[in-house]
Amino acid sequence: MAATPPDRRVRVQGVPVDAYPALAPETERGAVRRITVVGEEVLHRPCRPVTGFGTPELARLIDDMFATNHTAEGAGLAANQVDVDLRLFVWDITDDWGVRHVGHIANPVLDETPAAGRRLLEEPEGCLSVPGPYRTLARPDHAVVRGQDQHGNPLVIEGHGYFARCLQHETDHLHGRLYLDRLAARDRKSALREMADRRQEAFDRRAVNAARLGK
Predict the structure, then answer these.
(1) Cβ contacts of residue 193 below 8 Å, gap of 6+?
(2) If both were cysteines, with which of 29, 37, 80, 204 could 63 make a disulfide (CB 3.0 to 4.6 Å apart)?
(3) Which residues are catalytic?
(4) What is the pLDDT of residues 67-98, one digit of tens each?
């Protein structure tokens, strides 16, 4: 499997590494699960804290979430998007500066950004649980999230730009919120109409990607 050049342009769990495979090891190991869709109850309620650290079940869930995110061409994926009611999300995303970020976090809490130091970026945002549409949404261009890794070790992840948006988007999921909930009612309705027209196209593309990976 091809690896990125040794220029430390990859951060795994927030730590720079010299080289990393194009396909994350978790993705190689994982199985593809069904992604839940807006309207399903698990997406609209707060998730339970992760307590069973260091278990094979948690490791398997993380692997499966990576594989599912990859085949759906996502930047990140929360556990309730694979119908698991736990405060956990994964990411595999390249930011605005060409740095790839790969990792997972359990029980994440976003740092509060003082209003005086907050810079909002208005950019298109989509969601694997709202297949098809993107809508412009303002979010802070910097985010720090604190939580634990799969073994219960403390973890702090910092993101800027697109990666910051990802960290905020996935943390929202674990509180039972979708990006649609941050839109005006008219924009939300138009996004849902567009999803109805385009969801099957997204599902078909995911199936093709899963078959290509042999999953």
Answers:
(1) none
(2) 29
(3) 170
(4) 999 999 999 999 999 999 999 999 999 999 99
